[in-house]
Amino acid sequence: MSGATHTRAVVAMSLGGLLFGFDTAVISGVTDALRAEYLLSPGGLGLAVSAALWGTLVGALFSGAPGDRFGSLAVLRVIGLLYVVSAVGCAVATSLPAFIAFRVLGGLAIGASSVLVPVYIAEISPPERRGLLVGLFQFNIVLGILIAYLSNYLVAQIASADVAWRWKLGVAAVPAALFLVLLTGLPQSPRWLTARGRADEAKRAADRLGLATIPVVESGGTGRLDWRVHRMPILLAIAIGLFNQLSGINAILYYLNDIFAAAGFTGVSGDVQAIAIGVANLVATIIGMTIIDRVGRKPLLIGGGLVTAVALAGVALVYAGAAPASLLLPLLILFIAAFAMSQGAVIWVYLSEIFPTDVRARGQAIGSATHWVANAVLSFAFPLIAEWSRPLPFWTFAAAMVVQAVMVWRLFPETRGRDLEAISAELTNKRISA
What we know:
This protein is mainly alpha-helical. It contains 21 helices and no strands. α5 packs antiparallel against α9, α6 packs across α19 and α12 packs parallel to α19 (360-388). 79% of the residues lie in helices and 0% in strands. It has helices spanning 2-26, 31-38, 42-62, 64-70, 72-92, 96-123, 130-158, 161-170, 173-183, 190-195, 199-209, 227-246, 249-254, 256-262, 267-295, 297-319, 328-341, 343-353, 360-388, 392-411, 420-427.
C-alpha cells in the first residue's frame, strides 16, 4: 500500500506538468484564429499570447510563501480547481477581455504548479532517484506539448473553423479534472511536516509513502529567504530560470506554426511537422530522464547548451537565405532534442534541490518566476523582432546558449546523488567563485 501511495503521489504531481505543457503549446494552434477573431496586429497577438504568462508569473512568484506555510499539497488542491475553471472559461469566452481573464487564471495555476510540484516530488524522493522522479514533471510537460499538437490537429479535422479554436483550448478541462481527483487523499511531505515540528504526522506520512526513514531536516533556519544567507542558491535559481528561456524554447513553441509558415510551410503541413517536433521532444526527454542521475546535471547543461547553439545558428542561416528551407525541420528537431536532454531535464530538478526545506518553495519560486518573466517578455517580443529581422531572434538565442555553457562549467555545483540537506548546507552562505 505504501509503495502504491508513493507511486500515485508522483503520478498525480507530475500530471501538473502535463497541464503546464498543454497550455504552453496549445496556443500555437489558435494564433490565426485569434488574429481573425479580434483583428490583431503583431503587437496585439503578442499581448494575447503572453497574457496567460503574466498570470503564470504571479502564480510562480506568490505561491512559494503559502507553499512553505500550508504545504505544497494543500495549495495544489486549490490550483487544481483553477485549472478546470480556466479551461472551461476559455472555451466559452465571448469577448477578448473574458478570454484574457481566463487565460490569466490558467496562468496562475501553471505558475504555482511549476513551483510546488517539483518541491513536493523532490521532498519525497530518495537521492539516487530524485533526478528521475522530479524529471517526470518535465516528461509530462513534454507529453502535454505533444498531446496539444495532436489535439490541435485532430480538432482542426473534425470541428468547423469558427469554433475549432475554442475546442482546442477547452479540452484541457479533462486532464485538469483528473489532476484534481488524483490529489485527493495524498499525504503532506514528511520533510515539510518535520520542519513544521509535526513529527508524529511526519512519521505517518513517511509510512504511507513507503519511505524507509524520516529525513533529518536542517534546523536553525529563520523561515525567510535572506540574501546574506541564501545568496548562492538565489543566484543559481535566477541563472537557470533565465537561461532556460533565453534558449528560445517557449517563444519557438508558441509560434511554431508561424515559424513554419515563414519558411513556406502552410496548413496541415505545419501541423504535421509540429507533431514531429513534439515526438522528438518526448523521446529526448525520456533519454534525459534516464541519464540525469548517472551523468549528472552539469554535463547535461553544458553539452546540451552547445548543441542547441549550433541548431539555433542553423535556423538563423535558413532565414538569412544562407541555408535551404528543407533544413528547418531537422534543425528544429535537433534544437528540441538537445534542449529536452539538457535544460528541459535539469531545470525543475535543480531548482528543487538547492534551497533549504524551510524556504524551498520560496526559493523555487524565484527560479520559476525568473523563467516566466523571461518567457512573457520573449513571447511578446518574438513576433515584433522576427517581423523586422527573421534571423535575429535565433542568433540571439544561440549566443545565449554559449554563455550558459561557460557559466555552468565555471559556477554551477553538481547535485547528483546527494541529500537535499547536504546540498543546501554547502550552498548556504557560499559566495560564487571561479
